[in-house]
Amino acid sequence: MRLTFLGHAVLLISDIEGKYNVIIDPFITGNPAYPKDFQLPKIDYIMVTHGHGDHLGDTVELCKKYNSTVISNFEICNYLQLKGCKIHPMHVGGVYYFEFGKVKLTPAIHGSGIHEGDKVLYGGNPCGFLIKVEGKNIYHAGDTGLTKEFELLKDIDVAFLPIGGNFVMDVEDALVALEMIKPKIVVPIHYNTWDIIKADEQKFKEGAEKLGIKCVILKPGESLEI
């Protein structure tokens, strides 16, 4: 399985044989961190952690191009269905078995308002995703602050955690989260896209390694194979 970081909080999950491609929070248009020369494959599923524009991103456009299925909370799915998207609504705590693997929505401490012109629509509860694919447990935290809910996560092979501060955990809080989760590998996300979420990823890596956890810093477009 190949995990490709595409800047900000965008994660592409692909099997090596090319049977499926799943993208999380597809913020492509307007994302200064997105690798411009990256050729996105056909997307089978889109996972959306919450309704903010830097996470909902290009969901509608990708759905129309690839006939992708969106996995998100009930409210976001209802909104996207009105835009012509194929949907699979879920909610925090819910579990479903898809053709590519098992998906569970986890709590995230954040907001989820959807900006539609001059209106802000209710976007339901924000979430993270716990995904079991090919025997591996992948955790994408979405946008979240530090929460005791992390202690419920077990046997995580790779965790993608935000470290940028201001809207989400900063480096110090993300290290506390790491002590709770104890993943085999951690990859920092949601940092340095803009100055307001500037973070020292090397400081995070040093802190993770002091905890005995391998930290892999991926540049946008780089992949980790597990």
Indicate the proportion of strand residues: 25-35%
Spatial strand sequence of the major β-sheet: 6-5-4-3-2-1-16
Q: Helix count?
A: 5
Main β sheet profile = 7 strands, mixed
Quickly give the structural class: alpha/beta
Termini separation comes to 6 Å
Brief overview:
Helices cover 19% and strands 30% of the residues.
Q: What does this molecule look like?
A:
It is built from five helices and 16 strands. With 226 residues, it is of the alpha/beta class. A hairpin with a 2-residue loop joins strand 9 and strand 10. The protein has helices at residues 53-56, 59-66, 74-82, 171-181, 201-210; strands at 2-5, 11-14, 21-24, 45-47, 69-73, 86-90, 95-97, 102-107, 114-116, 119-121, 127-133, 136-140, 158-162, 185-189, 214-215, 223-225. The strands form three sheets. The protein has a seven-stranded mixed sheet, with helices on one face.
Provide key terms for this protein.
16 strands; seven-stranded mixed beta sheet; single chain; 226 residues; 5 helices; 19% helix
Give the helix/strand layout.
Layout: E1 2-5, E2 11-14, E3 21-24, E4 45-47, H1 53-56, H2 59-66, E5 69-73, H3 74-82, E6 86-90, E7 95-97, E8 102-107, E9 114-116, E10 119-121, E11 127-133, E12 136-140, E13 158-162, H4 171-181, E14 185-189, H5 201-210, E15 214-215, E16 223-225
Parallel strand pairs: 3-4, 4-5, 5-6, 12-13, 13-14, 14-15
Antiparallel strand pairs: 1-2, 1-16, 2-3, 7-8, 8-11, 9-10, 11-12
Helix pairs in contact: 4-5
